[in-house]
Structures
1.
Amino acid sequence: MSTIEFELIFEVPEVSGPGDPRIEQVEEHLDIVVQSHSGLTLATVTADGAEVLAAALNAAHILAVCGLRPVRSHPDLVTRQDIAERAEVTRQAVGNWVRGERLRTDPFPVPANLVGGGVWLWGDVVAWLRRQGHETDDLEFPSLSDHTRIDSALIELSGDLTQPSAAVRGARPSNGCEITGFVKLAGERTATLYAPSGTDAHHSLAGESFQAEYGLAV
């Protein structure tokens, strides 16, 4: 069965800094970027799955057994300025999109919230950009309904997150983490607080190894 690579964000316990051993343990199995803002710690990961819930639960299991148990998923909400920067266009262009100028047959997604002039779910924006022929990466993103499904599953699993699931059964220990399966790394992550400056394209938990250099992004 073919798999899809998803980018997922989880709220996780506070970390001590870029050298936190839990981050290093997760890095052996997932591409992860950790950000901390005023007591809120977010872990952005990429994970494969036949669909988004399977990928999210696999990632949540890995985070949990490495000591970064997810509290909940976190929607990637973006402002007009965020959209302009990520899509590499001017803010004026984004304003035209939002107002529906020149694109009445396929209107821009509705905002997820009207706070601060509107914020949009990044996955909705990416899907729209692709329909307009804009170049985007190959990652998929959860919808708002997907976030509801993921959070409901996390609540239902509760204390079972650290137990082997169908997606990760047959684990073997590695630096304190029991993980199994095959995870495709998304490559270089550079835009936030803790990020590897380089990784191999693939990492197999059956015996391959990879090296990563870490730095504090400023």
2.
Amino acid sequence: MDTPPPLPQAQEDDALLQSLRHFHADYFPLHQQRFQDLVAQGQHPTSLFIGCSDSRVVPYLLTGAGPGELFIVRNVGALAPPWEGAHGWHGTSAAIEYAVLVLKVRRIIVCAHSHCGAIRAAYEGVPEQAPALRSWLELAQDALLPVQVCDEALRRTEQRSVALQLQRLLDYPMVRSAVEAGQLSLHGWYYVIEEGEVYVFDARNGSFVAASSIASGQFTATGKTE
């Protein structure tokens, strides 16, 4: 089936406004009490979700979570900057600190995905006009393989990047402390868009296993909350 041509800008803007009106008139009244409780009692999400900015990754669809249940930070490639312990403009680092120290989340999920443009760009380079992007993608360098770029290499690199980010998270003092105290667990996910399957990183053997094939109680994350 051919892809329909994009709507003119004015029509796209009108469609967005219609969505806002739909939320206010139809969705919000059905969940008004929930939103009011979240204001009166504050937010208490149980998970920090670090995901890629890719438009095909929709955290609420993957997790089935509702308002107030996920604290979400998204960036190009679902990358975690290394702990520096200094002042800086790191939105992802700030979100990690806030989630662990203030919100007291019980788990951190790092979710990468198939066909990731960030990983491909880490191999192939970025436009000269994108110095910030070039610098940011240096965070993926340790996951790259010394091979010619192909679909299999990209898939393996996307998964290697998940393990790399989990390792980096443990360098954050507040994360390591909470993990060692049994108050926090780290989860690595690899979402294959075309399959609708999420593969989870099993800390026991360092492999990714399809979530649909894991029996209840048979999964080991990095650190445990129980």
3.
Amino acid sequence: MKTFYLYIVLLFSLGCKAQEFDLRGMKRFDEKVFKDWEVNRQYVPIGDDKYFKKGDKRVQLLFNYKDNEVQIEENDTNTPYTRWATYNLETEVQTAVGQSFFNIDYGIWCFYSKIGKLERKVNQDENYKFSIRQLIEKVKKNIT
């Protein structure tokens, strides 16, 4: 019976991999996620703000103690996309999430209460005749 449990433990350990950072899946703020990231010395931190890099990914942790929140901005050096999420420092729950393309806001932005309940969604594309995604596809089609 001990052998059976040992095999089960080994099986689970083989299936585990290191936790990768994914802003879309990070519903609670946890600064420990960046413990194995390199400090990005390209930026000089102001106050408690922090800048990290790992491969092509760049992350900024921007603390706003006045509003009791931290904003995480994530981008990739190979693309012009930026994703961000804001977290309440007291509850560590995600309170807002959105994205931009060349600093143009696009897509659905979601805003949550301090306890993580969805309060509203804002479609950043609704004032335009076509979305950023449609623009990207059109440019790709015209280039080829």
